[in-house]
Specification:
The complex is a heterodimer of chains A (about 350) and B (about 575).
Chain A (H helix, E strand, L loop, with lengths): L1 H18 L5 E7 L3 H14 L3 E7 L2 H10 L8 E6 H9 L3 E2 L23 E13 H7 L7 H4 L8 E4 L5 H14 L1 H14 E5 L4 H7 L5 E5 H9 L4 E4 L7 E9 L5 H11 L2 H8 L4 E2 L15 H4 L5 H6 L1 H13 L6
Parallel strand pairs in A: 1-2, 1-3, 6-7, 6-8
Antiparallel strand pairs in A: 3-10, 4-10, 5-8, 5-9, 5-10, 5-11
Helix pairs in contact in A: 2-12, 7-8
Chain B lengths: L1 H13 L4 H34 L10 H8 L3 H32 L5 H8 L8 H11 L17 H25 L3 H9 L4 H12 L1 H17 L2 H6 L6 H11 L3 H27 L18 H28 L2 E3 L3 E4 L13 H32 L4 H12 L6 H12 L13 H11 L1 H13 L4 H8 L4 H12 L1 H17 L15 H10 L3 H33 L8
Antiparallel strand pairs in B: 1-2
Classes of the chains: A alpha/beta (about 350), B mainly alpha (about 575).
C-alpha cells in the first residue's frame, strides 16, 4: 500500500533519533579558541579522561563574554577555557567564577596566573597583535610596507586596512587598549580617528582580517600572530609585521563557573589545562605559553616577541572594558559610512 | 446520482446523522486552534511584551522603544534598510515583469527550462549570492573592473544579493498574474486601432496591477527583513535586520533586538494591509465568457525577450555558480589548484559536518511534520463543521506567518520558550523547536496550497462516506489523502527546501548540538573562511536540488498509482 511506503522512511528516521542517547558526562565548555585548535585539545583530554566528553560553545571573545554575562542567573557552562583573561576578570567582578587551584599550577609562570589564592583563573598562553601584509597586492597598489602603528594612519592606506571589531573580538579589543596605553587616552582616540579613515571593514572575528589579507581581498589585516603565522606557513603571500611601538596582547585562560552542574569533572579539565601535555599542545599554536621552558621558536615569529608586548595591567583593562567599548562604538560603529 | 443527492439533502436537514464524527472533529478543531496559538500566536505575543516591558522594573513602559529610537545610528540603519529595499524593488520588479511576460505571453523557445532556471535561487541560502559577489566583484573579483571605483561592500552588493534572493518570489507572483488573459480585450483593442505599446499599457499592465503591487510588496518585505546578504557583503553599511542580529547575537541585548524586530514587522503588516485593500477593489479578470489568449507569432518580440531572459539567467546562475566553483579552488586568487580541502568542515568554525547532518534531519522532520500538520488543519477547516471560534482562530493564525519575518519569529520563540514559566521550556535548545519554528515560518504558503487542492474536491465525498457510516478519517485515508498527493508532495518539497536554506528563523534558536548548515555558512564567513562558507552553501544547493528531484519523482510515481481511476472509463 502506498501510504506505508510513504511513511516508512520517516519511521526509520524516528527510530534513528531515538537511538541517539548519551553515555557519559558531558562538560559544556565556553571558548573563544580557534576552531582548528579545539580538536587537538579535545582529543588529548578525552584520551586521558574517557568518561568525560567536551562540548564546545565557540564564538568570538566579545560574544562569549556577553553570553556568559547574559546567563549569569542560570549559567549553562561548566568551564570557560581559552577566553581572554580580561573578560574573565569581568566575570570575576560579577562573582561568577569559582576560584580553584588546579593540580600543578605552581609550575606555571606567576605572571600568567590570577594573583588571588586560590586563583580565579589560570593562563594557558599569550596571544598578541600582528599585522598581515599582502606583498603581492601591495606591489600592485604601490603600497609601502608599514613598520609601526603610526604608519597605518597615513593617508596612503585609505580603505586598505581591515581590523576586528573590539566589541566582538578579543583581538580587536587588545589592539584598542594597547593604543590607549601606548599613546595615552587623548592621543589614543585621536590616533583611532585617523585610523578609522583608513579602515575598510571592521570584522566580527579576529582571524578574518588576516584571512582577508592572505586572500588579497584587502592588503593589510590587523590580526594576531597564531593566525598570521599559520596562513604564512600555508603559503599565503603575506609578510608578518610586528609594529615597533609595542603589541597588544591578552591571555587565554581557564576558569570554573560557579553553579556549574559537573564541578568534579570541571576540575579535571582545569587540572589538565595547566598540565605539561596541554602546554605542549598550546605551544603548537602560540609563541608564549604559561609553562616556562615549553615554548619553541617559530620561524615566522621574532625571538624577542615576549619583550615586544606592551606593558599593561589586565585589571585596569577589565575595569574599563565597558567604558572603552561604549566610547569605541559611539565613535566608529554608530557613525554612518563616510562616502 | 440524482436520487442520492436528494436523499442526502434530506439527511442533512435532519442533522444528527454523523454526530460521533462531529464530536471528534470538534475536538480536533480545538486541538488545531491550541497548537497554532502555541506555536504562532504566543511567540509573537512574547516578542511584543518584551519590547514594551522595562527590563529593570518589569513595568509596562515604552522606554525600550524610545531607547532604540534615540540610539545613535538607528536612523542610519532605518534609512539604509529603506534605501536598499526600495532599490531592490526597482531592480527586481521590472525584470521579473518582463521575464514573466516572456514566459506567459510570448512564443519564445525554451520557456519551460527558462522558468526552472529562473526559480533556482530558491534552492540557495540568502548568504550565497553575497559570497558569489565577493568572488565576482570583491577586490580580487573576476569582474572587479566593471564596478570602476565603487565598492561591492555596501549598498551595491546588498541590492544585487537581495535581487537574486527575491527574484523568484516576484516571478512566481507575476506568472500567476499574467497566466490568465482574456483574448477578447486584445481583439477589441486591436479593432479600435490601438498600437502594440498602447495595448501593453492599457490592457496588459492594468490587468497585472494586482500582481505587480503584490510582488513589489513581497520583494520589499523580503529585502527589508533579510540580514544574510548584508552580513556577508554589507561592509560597514547599516541595515535594521543586521542591527537586530548584532544586538541579540553580539551583545545578548534581547530587549533591543525585540524592539528592532517589531519594527521589521511593520513593513510586512503594512504590505499585508495594502494587499488586502487592493484585492478588495479588484474585479475578476476572467469571466465565464472569457476567451483564452494565445500570443500571436512575432519573431522580433520573441528574439528580444529571449535575449533579455538569457541575460537575466546568466546573472542569476553566475551568483549561484561562482560560489560553487570557488569552493573547489585552493586559495583564490593565488593558488588555483582544485581541492576538496574546503569541504573538510571539521577543521573550521561553523559546526562542521554535524551542521549539515542536522540540517538534513531538521528538513526531513519539517517536511513530515509540516505537511501532515498543515493538511490536518486545512482539512478540518475545509471539510469539517468546526466550532466558529476554533475555526476563526485557525483561519487567522494560518495566514499570519506570511506577515512575520523569520528573524522576528525566531526571536519570539526565544522569549516564549526560554521562559522558565513555560511548560514547554524543555523544547528549548532541541532540534524539535527548530522544526516547529520552521514549520510556523513557512506555514501560510503550504496552507494555501493544500487548501486550494482540498477546495477542488467535492464536499459530497464526505457526505457520501457519512451515509455509508464510515468515520471521516477512513475517508481521508482512502480518498482525500490519495487525491491530494500531488499537492502534498509539493508542500513537502517546499518545506524541505525552505528548511534547508533558512537562516533568519533559526539563527537565534540553534545550540552547538543543533547547529545547522545555513548557520554554518554564516559563521564560517564571519571567521573569514569564505571558501568553506561557499562549500557548505554548495552542499545545501545540491541537497535541495536532489531532494526536489526525488520528491517530484516520487510524487508523480505515487500520483500515477493513486489517480489511476481518473483514466478509467465510467
Amino acid at each position: 500500500m502506498y501510504p506505508n511506503t510513504l511513511l516508512k522512511p520517516f519511521a526509520l528516521l524516528l527510530a534513528g533519533l531515538a537511538g541517539m542517547a548519551q553515555a557519559n558526562t558531558t562538560l559544556t565548555v565556553y571558548t573563544a579558541l580557534e576552531a582548528d585548535q579545539l580538536k587537538a585539545y579535545q582529543e588529548q583530554f578525552e584520551k586521558e579522561h574517557p568518561d568525560i566528553k567536551l562540548k564546545w560553545v565557540r564564538d568570538s571573545t566579545g560574544v562569549i563574554t556577553a553570553k556568559l554575562l547574559a546567563e549569569k542567573a542560570s549559567p549553562q557552562a561548566d568551564v570557560v577555557m581559552g577566553v581572554a583573561a580580561s573578560s574573565l576578570l569581568v566575570l570575576e567582578k560579577e562573582g561568577m567564577l569559582q576560584p580553584y587551584s588546579p593540580k600543578g599550577i605552581e609550575k606555571l609562570s606567576r605572571q600568567y596566573v590570577d594573583s588571588a589564592s586560590p586563583p580565579a583563573w589560570a593562563g594557558m598562553d599569550v596571544w598578541g597583535a600582528a599585522i598581515c601584509f599582502n606583498t603581492v597586492e601591495a606591489a600592485k597598489l604601490g603600497l609601502k610596507k608599514p613598520e609601526s602603528w603610526a604608519d597605518l594612519a597615513k593617508p596612503e592606506y585609505k580603505g586598505r586596512i581591515v581590523m576586528p571589531n573590539p566589541a566582538s573580538s578579543g583581538t580587536g579589543f587588545f589592539d584598542v587598549t594597547a593604543w590607549l596605553g601606548l599613546f595615552g587616552e587623548k592621543e589614543g582616540w585621536s590616533y583611532m580617528d585617523r585610523l578609522h579613515d583608513n579602515i575598510a571593514q571592521y570584522t566580527h572575528s579576529g582571524s578574518k582580517p588576516c584571512k582577508q589579507a592572505a586572500a588579497g581581498e584587502f592588503p593589510i589585516g590587523i590580526s594576531f600572530e597564531y593566525r598570521a603565522a599559520k596562513l604564512k606557513a600555508g603559503g599565503a603571500p603575506i609578510d608578518l609585521i610586528f609594529p615597533k611601538e609595542g603589541l597588544g596582547w591578552d591571555l587565554e585562560a581557564t576558569a570554573l563557573l560557579k553553579g556549574g552542574k559537573n564541578p568534579e569533572q570541571a576540575r579535571k579539565l582545569a587540572d589538565w589545562a595547566v598540565s605539561r601535555t596541554a602546554n605542549e599542545l598550546y605551544e603548537k599554536n602560540f609563541a608564549i605559553v604559561a609553562m616556562p621552558g615549553v615554548a619553541k621558536p617559530n620561524e615566522h615569529i621574532p625571538a624577542n616577541y615576549e619583550q615586544r608586548l606592551v606593558k599593561q595591567d589586565l585589571r585596569w583593562v577589565a575595569g574599563n572594558r565597558d567604558r572603552i567599548l561604549a566610547e569605541w562604538t559611539r565613535r566608529y560603529d554608530a557613525k554612518s559610512e563616510k562616502k | 446520482m440524482k436520487a442520492l443527492r436528494f436523499w442526502l439533502e434530506a439527511g442533512e436537514a435532519a442533522v444528527p446523522l454523523w454526530s460521533p464524527d462531529q464530536r471528534v472533529a470538534r475536538g480536533l478543531g480545538w486541538l488545531a486552534a491550541i497548537g497554532l496559538t502555541l506555536f504562532i500566536a504566543l511567540p509573537l505575543l512574547a516578542i511584543l511584551l518584551q519590547a514594551v516591558i522595562d527590563s529593570e522594573s518589569g513595568q509596562l513602559s515604552l522606554a525600550p522603544v524610545q531607547a532604540v529610537l534615540a540610539s545613535p545610528g538607528f536612523l542610519d540603519s532605518l534609512l539604509g534598510s529603506l534605501t536598499v529595499s526600495l532599490a531592490t524593488v526597482a531592480l527586481v520588479l521590472p525584470t521579473a515583469l518582463v521575464f514573466a511576460f516572456a514566459l506567459t505571453r510570448s512564443r519564445m523557445p525554451g520557456r519551460g527550462l527558462f522558468k526552472l532556471l529562473a526559480l533556482s535561487p530558491l534552492l540557495a541560502p540568502s548568504l550565497m549570492p553575497g559570497i558569489s559577489l565577493v568572488y565576482l566583484f570583491g577586490n580580487q573579483g573576476l569582474l572587479k573592473s566593471w564596478l570602476g571605483d565603487a565598492s561591492i561592500y555596501g549598498p551595491i552588493g546588498i541590492v544585487l544579493g537581495e535581487a537574486f534572493y527575491t527574484f523568484p518570489h516576484a516571478l512566481l507572483i507575476l506568472l500567476t498574474a499574467l497566466a490568465v488573459a482574456d483574448a477578447r480585450l486584445y481583439e477589441a483593442a486591436e479593432t479600435l486601432g490601438a498600437s502594440r505599446l498602447r495595448r501593453l499599457l492599457t490592457v496588459t499592465l492594468p490587468n497585472a496591477r494586482y500582481g505587480l503591487i503584490s510582488a513589489g510588496l513581497v520583494v520589499f518585505t523580503l529585502a527589508m527583513t533579510d540580514f544574510g546578504v548584508a552580513k556577508v557583503i554589507g561592509g560597514q553599511y547599516k541595515v535594521l535586520a543586521l542591527e537586530a542580529y548584532k544586538q541579540v547575537i553580539g551583545q545578548q541585548n534581547f530587549g533591543k533586538g525585540a524592539v528592532i524586530g517589531l519594527m521589521l514587522l511593520l513593513p510586512a503588516v503594512l504590505s499585508l494591509l495594502v494587499e488586502r485593500w487592493v484585492a478588495g477593489s479588484r474585479s475578476a479578470s476572467l469571466g465565464g465568457r472569457s476567451v483564452a489568449f494565445h500570443p500571436p507569432e512575432n519573431r522580433w518580440r520573441d528574439g528580444a525577450l529571449w535575449l533579455f531572459c538569457g541575460g537575466v539567467l546568466i546573472g542569476l546562475l553566475a551568483l549561484l555558480g561562482v560560489a560553487m566553483a570557488a569552493s573547489f579552488i585552493k586559495l583564490w586568487p593565488y593558488s588555483l589548484e582544485l581541492t576538496l580541502a574546503h569541504y573538510d568542515f571539521d577543521q573550521m568554525d561553523g559546526g562542521g559536518w554535524q551542521a549539515f547532518r542536522n540540517s538534513v534531519q531538521m528538513a526531513a522532520w519539517t517536511a513530515l511534520v509540516g505537511t501532515l500538520g498543515v493538511f490536518g488543519v486545512a482539512y478540518l477547516l475545509e471539510k469539517m463543521p468546526l466550532p466558529p471560534l476554533a475555526r476563526q482562530i485557525c483561519r487567522t493564525l494560518a495566514l499570519l506567518p506570511m506577515a512575520v519575518p523569520g528573524l522576528v519569529l525566531g526571536l519570539g520563540y526565544i522569549f516564549c520558550f526560554n521562559h522558565p514559566a513555560n511548560p514547554l521550556h524543555g523544547l528549548y535548545g532541541s532540534l524539535a523547536i527548530l522544526v516547529l519554528a520552521t514549520v510556523a515560518h513557512f506555514y501560510t504558503t503550504a496552507h494555501l496550497t493544500i487548501s486550494t487542492a482540498l477546495r477542488q474536491l467535492d464536499g459530497e465525498i464526505e457526505a457520501v462516506s457519512a451515509t455509508l457510516c464510515r468515520p471521516f478519517w477512513v475517508t481521508v485515508w482512502r480518498v482525500t489523502l490519495p487525491i491530494c498527493l500531488p499537492a502534498l508532495f509539493d508542500v513537502a518539497r517546499f518545506f524541505f527546501v525552505s528548511a534547508l536554506t533558512t537562516v533568519s528563523c533559526v539563527i537565534f534558536l540553534y545550540t552547538p548540538d543543533t547547529v545547522l548548515a545555513g548557520v554554518a555558512v554564516l559563521n564560517m564567513d564571519d571567521a573569514g573562511e569564505t571558501a568553506g562558507a561557499a562549500a557548505m552553501a554548495t552542499l545545501i544547493v545540491a541537497t535541495a536540488l536532489l531532494a526536489s528531484l526525488l520528491l517530484s519523482a516520487a510524487g508523480s510515481l505515487l500520483n500515477r498509482r493513486a489517480q489511476a481511476w481518473r483514466g478509467q472509463p465510467h
